[in-house]
Amino acid sequence: MKLNTLVLGIESTCDETACAIVRNGTDILANVISSQIDLHKEYGGVVPELACRRHVDILIPVIQEALETADVTLEDIDIIAVAHGPGLIGALLIGLTAAKTLSIALDKPFIGINHIEAHLYAAVMSQPEAISFPAVGVVVSGGHTALVLIKNIGEYQLIGQTIDDAIGEAFDKVAKILDLPYPGGPQIEALAKTGNKSRFSFKPGVVKTNPYDFSFSGLKTAVLYAVKGQRGEQASILESDPAIIHDVAASFQHAALSDVVKKALLAAKEYHCNTLIFGGGVTNNQRLREMFDEVNPDLNYVWPLLGLSLDNAAMIAGLGYHHYLRREVGDSLDLEARTSISW
Ligand code: KG4
Ligand code: ZN
């Protein structure tokens, strides 16, 4: 491996088109993210067809911007890394095809990256000095919720995952019930600040087969019933008492976040880990961070830096460096896009 290895990373799993250039796994020279929130906002969620079209339009300009920001040319790049799953199949194909094309044209190796693993690596690259293994990885994003035992970078064991909705998805769906714009997570967090979390006794699902699995779909339905009645026929309770929205948000948020805190801390105890590494957009929630500190202030919590918590390509490029270091060979050009990837 060269002393200074430059990896160009591409991310297009969902509704962000991103390209980053990272030196030696942690040194971010460019981290360009083109968000599609404006496009999907009016639908209250991501519309896959629209996401794909936008990726096609914007990916090449995003790559060009990353190269300009990093002040490098394509010839300077050593490795191409790309998220090849999990995600929306059409969206993945666009990033993967671009990465393979660059790899062939430049005659440089290319590495396919698991987007969820990269979310955890985002915290590692944010604070490399704070990391010690084994650690419990806590993925809380719009598409995924999982607890993973991290033995080392590239060595994982799945502890638990959601059996239905992801936690960020639950935030977004509850926001929709409350007529709040997409993405709902930040809106719910803001409203919850001045709400009474004990006003509604919402409960997350219990998964009997695995105490570490999550279920958020029943919680979302409980919020719907509380707001609009069992058949959705009742006038929203927000009409008669608009201020109650704060209590709904606080009660929902408390139920969802305490479930993550409880299960993550239980996993840390069972697997003898003092370090918890967090990834995904819901890590932006400050209340989540406070709750971990309140319940157990003695553990080592490693959170991603702000620019690395939502979908980005720096985490893809950074992790690509480590995978190449381990294997010293790129992936075959036959590598396929995957809507799900097992650990
Ligand atoms: O990791 P991410 O960019 O997407 C996936 O890979 O799925 O995360 C986006 C998710 C959205 O569901 C959004 O509502 C949620 O992260 N989110 C939050 C907050 N900020 C973003 N959820 C709760 N509180 C927040 N402050
Ligand atoms: Zn993500």
How is this fold's topology laid out?
Blueprint: E1 6-11, E2 16-23, E3 27-35, H1 37-40, H2 48-70, E4 79-85, H3 89-106, E5 110-114, H4 115-126, E6 135-140, E7 145-152, E8 155-161, H5 167-177, H6 184-192, H7 217-228, H8 237-240, H9 244-270, E9 275-279, H10 286-295, E10 300-302, H11 314-327
Parallel strand pairs: 1-4, 4-5, 6-9, 9-10
Antiparallel strand pairs: 1-2, 2-3, 6-7, 7-8
Helix pairs in contact: 2-3, 4-11, 5-6, 5-7, 5-9, 6-9, 7-9, 9-10
5'-O-[(R)-(carboxyoxy)(hydroxy)phosphoryl]adenosine (KG4) binds at residues 14, 141-143, 168-169, 171-172, 183-186, 189, 280-282, 284-285, 310-311.
Brief sketch in words of this structure:
The protein has 343 residues and is of the alpha/beta class. The chain has helices at residues 37-40, 48-70, 89-106, 115-126, 167-177, 184-192, 217-228, 237-240, 244-270, 286-295, 314-327, and strands at 6-11, 16-23, 27-35, 79-85, 110-114, 135-140, 145-152, 155-161, 275-279, 300-302. α5 crosses α6 (184-192) and α6 (184-192) packs across α9 (244-270).
